[in-house]
Design a protein that fits this description.
With 293 residues, this protein is α/β, with parallel strands linked by helices. The protein is 37% helix and 21% strand. The strands form two sheets. Strands 1-2-3-4-5-6-7 form a seven-stranded mixed β-sheet. The chain has a five-stranded mixed β-sheet with strand order 8-9-10-11-12, with helices on one face. A hairpin with a 3-residue loop joins strand 3 and strand 4. Bound molecules: zinc ion (ZN).
């Protein structure tokens, strides 16, 4: 991890629908999947990549794609690889987010900047010169963005992976951008860092996943990992419910937390031997222990 450089490769952009491309993360850690969604009037960018240089590359790509159309930017939540490049878009794009996400960024952005700088030299270099952006438009729970012949739905989901999660859907293309509410090929990321950050809620996350699955999108763009279909929503929901049930069953019998962690981790690895991000299992168990009724 020390020298890992989370670089966004805009050259890998793939057209997944008419006038809609995804810059895939190619399973590179701390690189998000990034969307560029066009209408006749305007173009919306979803996620910035980590730090100003990545965001410059995304902005240049989007401007080329837009060919004079107006630019908008949104981010699925405030975490650094998703949103800590937004200031590069200032004056070039209208930055639009939900209120809870704006609040999350203001409250926890500086702390996450420090934490991420400690992850290694490559990440720290990406964050050099970063400043936290001010959104241009802040909405409460729902915003319909008309790009011209295509309306994109921005929806705050309520607290789950973070306090300010937002999902972006493109109804005419059957597409959903989930941010870190869904990952492909890896364990769900629980940013459970007591006492600094305990906003993630496994219980509420399960409820959110049920609502997203009910929308039945055809294409799901996860926060990280390969683009897929509704099976990604099902897999995340199934995993979260299993994690909750296995954790709570042991908590009911007053088992010490370290034993719960060891046993649940073994059970989850047996279920998903090919998934990355194994360290997030322990964080998830910690969160769900705290949410045990
Ligand atoms: Zn995240």
């Amino acid at each position: 991890m020390t020298n890992h450089d989370p670089v966004v490769q805009v050259a890998g952009a793939e057209e997944l629908a008419r006038d809609l491309v995804v810059i895939p993360n190619r399973r590179v850690e701390l690189v998000p999947n990034i969307g560029v969604i066009g209408g006749t009037r305007a173009v919306l960018v979803v996620e910035t990549g980590l730090g100003p240089a990545n965001a410059e590359a995304v902005l240049a790509f989007a401007a080329e794609f837009a060919r004079g159309r107006e630019l908008y930017l949104t981010t699925t939540h405030f975490h650094p690889e998703h949103a800590f490049g937004a200031e590069v878009f200032a004056g070039r794009a209208t930055y639009l987010v939900n209120q809870a996400q704006a609040d999350d960024l203001a409250a926890k952005g500086p702390g996450y900047l420090g934490m991420f700088r400690g992850l290694g030299d490559g990440v720290a270099r990406r964050l050099e010169g970063v400043s936290l952006a001010q959104p241009d438009v802040v909405y409460a729970d729902a915003y319909d963005l008309d790009l011209g012949g295509r309306v994109v739905h921005l929806r705050a989901t309520g607290r789950a992976h973070s306090k300010g999660d937002q999902v972006v859907t493109v109804p005419d293309a059957g597409m959903m951008f989930t941010g870190d509410l869904v990952e492909a090929g890896q364990f769900a990321i629980f940013p459970w860092f007591p006492p600094h950050d305990t906003d993630v809620s496994g219980v509420r996350w399960i409820t959110v996943m049920e609502r997203l699955a009910a929308q039945a999108p055809r294409v799901v763009v996860p926060g990280h990992g390969d683009v897929g279909g509704p099976e990604l929503l099902a897999a995340t929901g199934d995993y979260l419910r299993l994690l909750r049930d296995e954790t709570w069953r042991r908590r009911d019998s007053a088992m010490p937390e370290e034993t719960i962690v060891a046993e649940v981790r073994a059970a989850m690895l047996a279920r998903h031997p090919d998934w990355a991000g194994q360290d997030w299992i322990e964080k998830g168990v910690g969160c769900l222990c705290a949410e045990h009724p």
